[in-house]
Amino acid sequence: MEERNHVLAGTTQIITAFVSHNLLNAQDLPALIAKVHGAFRDEQVAEPAVAKATASQIRRSITPDALISFIDGKPYKVLTRHLAMHGFTISEYRNRYGLPADYPSTAPAYSAVRSAAAKAAGLGGALGSTRSKTAAAKRSPTPR
Fold it and tell me: Choosing a second label site near 130 at 20 to 30 A (CA), which of 6, 57, 86, 111?
């Protein structure tokens, strides 16, 4: 059932895009639909093979201020939203391009800024630290 939905969704997207950008006679539409649907059904529309990234490409994709996407070659501070727009999770992205399991999803400088902001706000401290005990003492009422 899921495969059928994939075929129908793919056919619909392609036909919609084609018709919205091209002139087409009404009598030619059924033949176009049949041809596109047949291509999906017969698996003639295959996903292109993607070459795995080399070690040097992986090193060059990680810069202090941005991560360079292997999908479109553009720099991003955070990859998760970009990957979601292309239908990937970070683990699927890593697998597809042969990236190591510890490949970051955020740029190093961005992570450092976020970390510093969290620490300045008092987050990320060890449980039971002096600051936590002091804050808890101020909140609890004093016994009489």
Answer: 111
Q: How many domains does the chain have?
A: 2
Write out the two tokens for 77. 């501070």
- Could you report the per-residue pLDDT of 65-96, keeping only the tens digit for each? 999 999 999 999 999 999 999 999 999 999 99
Question: According to the per-residue pLDDT averaged within each range, which of 12-16, 40-44, 132-136, 138-142 is highest?
Answer: 12-16
Contacts 24+ apart (CB under 8 A), 78-86: 78/105, 78/106, 78/107, 78/110, 79/105, 79/106, 80/105
DSSP 12: H
Decide: pTM greater than 0.70: no
Helix or strand (DSSP H, E) at 68: strand 67-68
Helix (H) or strand (E) holding 76: strand 75-76
